């Protein structure tokens, strides 16, 4: 594994708050240097602004077309895009002034969220660099890293630049000025992109070649292979290419975000004049083309080898590949939008023209051509990333999909949850009958989504005794059986309410399409509350049973997306509990009507009660600990950023309460700081499945309390979204979730450990060099043993 980057310099010194106000200076002295700060230039420390227009651009999702390897970049394997959404940092001064029990918490106690996200993507890169990861999975992790970074620049960097340009950016909770954060991102991402390219060039590609999978350039092809690709070029590529000249009569063309392009310099043999032209690589064609069995070449190489076909009569002097990333965030003023659906459709069209935030070029690019691109694209030199070709390694998703099972993780097919079908059979389980017996706690992908949640809704759609179905949809697949079931239910006369969150980032267009399809079938479709995204994962089925109505519910941590359910780790509760049913009825009434209910029986709901409810429970653990009763706090989330909640964890730690945080991505907590957080441990698990569930556990004086739900600990989740957590009441389910925590946090389990300096350290082997247990493989093996198919 490559060595880590050099230690960045600490931030500029400021007068400690403990010297300005009454506080506890010993805590401040205990804090380590802030490694979240990269070196910044002198001018940057003056917080200079960057003048970039505020516009939008169109995100592209290429689909398979030509050749055998597709350039598809599915959300199913990339990091959740929602982790990257703008999440305005709270004013740090509000927390610097926070005094409780006569003790003031120190400055510098929050890690920088952008640095933390980059550290998350570095952990993804470490999986690609790990020789113990199966080879095609390593290629896939390289693609995930690239896709993640694309979205980070499109959303986080673009949003930061926009706030700087408009003068609304403020000091982050980590204490860094906006310009300092931006320069840290440039420096850190440059290091990671260099490591990423080196991993592909020097490690993964050569090992793939040893396994008979060759990723080659045009010059490495045989004459026969070149002839075959020439035929492919003439018939399937050439017709869709459009060379665009740049001269006084032809302005510099618009370069769309994430598109791959060739910058071409040609010469007129008659006049001797040199000209610049741009050729866009069609995004709907395959990223890698198969020249012969298991020999693949980048599509831009095929185009570059036949440029004379595009510029007949001209001399092609040189060509260079480049790729631009643009701001692809959306802004919709909901308060002024009479029809949110129409407003969003208009904004999607406008997004195509967002300002640039990153320019990737092949490192061999001519300086004249680079200067022209920088000038015409109005991008700074700091945003230019020279890299060895080929660019855009998201195309490795296609390579990772090759049918070579011996180079992948062993195949795992989830079975039906044992509480839904004690014995596997060809007939579908009767979900309603099972739920009348007991609650069912699902753990995907170890428990089948199709025979649980999907079957629950499909059974509800066809059951003549079901009167109504109410459902939230945040993201779903293009061929969703969930949508089909809801349409079937509506067409059979059932009352169907579907809350479609059409503002789910990068899925807006797909969600608009399905919203219209649901409306046309007779479903009542609503788009949530103005100013709030509906992110909760809820299903409610109302069924006539004799003289009474019974409500069946599902509350989950993940989207109703059958494809991602096979790749994302999530939890869900299926229950016929009357309290949960009543809570969901009340919540759906709030989402579809004018209800102002803020308290529930077994739910915590954002934005009103969720943060306060969790903080109250954390504070209660302090009371239990002081009274000598069992106390602990256990939190598993994707992101941990909210300062108020983190401060509650710090105070619990100061009181002696053990706090465990299991986080996949961003984490602003500094664990292990004497006097502040020595009782806090932070772990991260990455692997074949994307850890996505959210769980909150409390010792509660010996009567453990556990909650699951949709909310991450970020400002936007707690303040600007409808989120829901449900309390788990079955003692066996609580015990199972606590055992999951103990396994994930154990020192004998493979994971990354966060240090007080903000650095993550991977712990994958024990003192003797033997591999530590992998929590995901342990859960897979447990399911296989249950079905009698475990490996001996």
Automatic annotation (TrEMBL):
Disordered: annotated segments: 1-67
Molecular function via GO: polyphosphate kinase activity
Record-annotated Polyphosphate kinase C-terminal domain positions: 430-596, 603-768
Cited CDD domains: PLDc_PaPPK1_C1_like, PLDc_PaPPK1_C2_like
Active site: 535
Keyword Mitochondrion: no
Presence of keyword Isomerase: no
Enzyme class (EC, first level): transferase
Domain of life: Bacteria
Residues reported in the UniProt entry to bind Mg(2+): 475, 505
Comp. bias (Low complexity): 19-39
Biased composition regions of type Pro residues, renumbered to the chain: 1-11
EC numbers, comma separated: 2.7.4.1
Residues involved in ATP binding: 148, 568, 664, 692
InterPro entries (alphabetical): PP_kinase, PP_kinase_C_1, PP_kinase_middle, PP_kinase_middle_dom_sf, PPK_C_dom2, PPK_N_dom, PPK_N_dom_sf
Cofactor: Mg(2+)
Domain Polyphosphate kinase middle per the UniProt entry, residue ranges: 225-398
Range of residues in the leader sequence: none
Chain segments annotated as transmembrane: none
Reaction(s) catalysed (UniProt annotation): [phosphate](n) + ATP = [phosphate](n+1) + ADP
Reported modifications of this chain: An intermediate of this reaction is the autophosphorylated ppk in which a phosphate is covalently linked to a histidine residue through a N-P bond.
Comp. bias (Polar residues): 49-66
Function according to Swiss-Prot or TrEMBL: Catalyzes the reversible transfer of the terminal phosphate of ATP to form a long-chain polyphosphate (polyP).
Annotated family: Belongs to the polyphosphate kinase 1 (PPK1) family.
NCBIfam families, A to Z: poly_P_kin, PRK05443.1-1, PRK05443.1-2, PRK05443.2-2, PRK05443.2-3
Record-given protein name: Polyphosphate kinase
Classification lineage: Bacteria, Bacillati, Actinomycetota, Actinomycetes, Kitasatosporales
């Amino acid at each position: 594994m490559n060595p880590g980057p050099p230690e960045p310099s600490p931030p500029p010194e400021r007068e400690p708050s403990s010297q300005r106000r009454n506080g506890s200076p010993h805590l401040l002295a205990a804090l380590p240097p802030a490694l979240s700060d990269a070196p910044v230039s002198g001018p940057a420390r003056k917080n200079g602004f960057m003048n970039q227009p505020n516009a939008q651009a169109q995100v592209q999702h290429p689909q398979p077309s030509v050749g055998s390897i597709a350039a598809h970049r599915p959300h199913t394997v990339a990091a959740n895009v929602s982790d990257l959404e703008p999440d305005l940092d709270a004013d740090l001064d509000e927390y610097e002034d926070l005094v409780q029990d006569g003790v003031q918490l120190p400055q510098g106690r929050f890690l920088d969220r952008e640095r933390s996200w980059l550290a998350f993507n570095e952990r993804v890169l470490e999986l690609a660099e790990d020789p113990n990861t199966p080879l095609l999975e390593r290629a896939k992790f390289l693609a995930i890293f690239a896709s993640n970074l694309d979205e980070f620049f499109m959303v986080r960097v673009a949003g930061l630049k926009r706030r700087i340009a408009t003068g609304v950016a403020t000091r982050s909770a980590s204490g860094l000025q906006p310009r300092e954060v931006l320069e840290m991102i440039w420096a850190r991402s440059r290091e990671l992109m260099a490591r990423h390219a080196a991993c592909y060039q020097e490690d993964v590609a050569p090992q793939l070649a040893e396994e008979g999978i060759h990723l080659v350039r045009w010059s490495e092809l045989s004459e026969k292979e070149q002839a075959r690709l020439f035929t492919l070029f003439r018939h399937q590529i050439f017709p869709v290419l459009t060379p665009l000249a740049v001269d006084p009569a032809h302005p510099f063309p618009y370069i769309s975000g994430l598109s791959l392009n060739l910058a071409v310099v040609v010469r007129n043999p008659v006049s001797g004049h040199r000209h610049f032209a741009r050729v866009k690589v069609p995004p709907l064609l395959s990223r890698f083309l198969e020249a012969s069995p298991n020999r693949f070449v980048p599509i831009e190489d095929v185009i570059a080898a036949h440029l004379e076909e595009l510029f007949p009569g001209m001399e092609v002097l040189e060509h260079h590949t480049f790729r631009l990333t643009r701001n692809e965030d959306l802004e919709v003023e909901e308060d002024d939008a009479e029809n949110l659906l129409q407003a969003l459709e208009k904004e999607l069209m406008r997004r195509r023209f967002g300002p640039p935030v990153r320019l990737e070029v092949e490192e061999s690019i001519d300086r004249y051509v680079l200067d022209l691109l920088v000038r015409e694209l109005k991008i700074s030199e700091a945003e230019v990333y020279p890299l060895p070709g080929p660019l855009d390694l998201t195309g490795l998703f296609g390579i990772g999909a090759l049918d070579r099972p011996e180079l992948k993780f062993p195949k795992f097919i989830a079975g039906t949850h044992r509480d839904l079908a004690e014995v596997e059979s060809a007939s579908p389980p009767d979900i309603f009958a099972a739920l009348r017996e007991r609650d069912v706690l699902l753990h995907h992908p170890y428990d089948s989504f199709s025979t649980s949640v999907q079957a629950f809704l499909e059974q509800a759609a066809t059951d003549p005794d079901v009167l109504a179905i109410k459902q939230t949809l945040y993201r779903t697949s293009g061929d969703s059986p969930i949508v089909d079931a809801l349409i079937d239910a509506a067409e059979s006369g059932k009352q169907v309410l579907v809350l479609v969150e059409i503002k789910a980032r990068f899925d807006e267009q797909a969600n608009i399409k399905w919203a219209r399809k649901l409306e046309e079938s007779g479903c009542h479709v609503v788009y949530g509350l103005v100013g709030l995204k509906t992110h909760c994962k809820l299903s409610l089925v109302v069924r006539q049973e004799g003289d009474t109505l019974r409500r069946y519910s599902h509350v989950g941590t993940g989207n109703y997306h059958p494809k991602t359910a096979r790749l994302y780790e999530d939890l869900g509760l299926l229950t016929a509990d009357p309290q949960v049913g009543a809570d969901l009825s009340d919540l759906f009434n709030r989402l579809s009507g004018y209800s102002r209910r803020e308290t529930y029986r077994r739910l915590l709901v954002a934005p009103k009660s969720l943060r306060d409810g969790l903080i109250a429970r954390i504070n209660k653990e302090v009371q239990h600990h002081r009274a000598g009763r069992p106390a602990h706090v256990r939190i598993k989330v994707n992101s941990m950023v909210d300062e108020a909640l983190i401060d509650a964890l710090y105070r619990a730690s100061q009181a002696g309460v053990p706090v465990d945080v299991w986080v996949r991505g961003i984490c602003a907590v500094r664990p292990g700081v004497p006097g502040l957080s020595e009782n806090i441990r932070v772990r991260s698990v990455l692997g074949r499945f994307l850890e996505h569930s959210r769980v909150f556990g409390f010792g509660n004086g010996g009567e453990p309390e556990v909650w699951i739900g949709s909310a991450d600990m970020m400002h936007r989740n707690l303040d600007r979204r409808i989120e829901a957590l449900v309390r788990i009441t079955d003692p066996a389910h609580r015990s199972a979730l606590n055992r999951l925590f103990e396994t994930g946090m154990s020192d004998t389990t493979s994971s990354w450990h966060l240090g007080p300096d903000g650095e993550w350290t991977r712990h994958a082997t024990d003192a003797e060099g033997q591999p530590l247990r992998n929590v995901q493989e342990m859960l897979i093996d447990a399911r296989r043993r249950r079905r009698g198919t475990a490996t001996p």
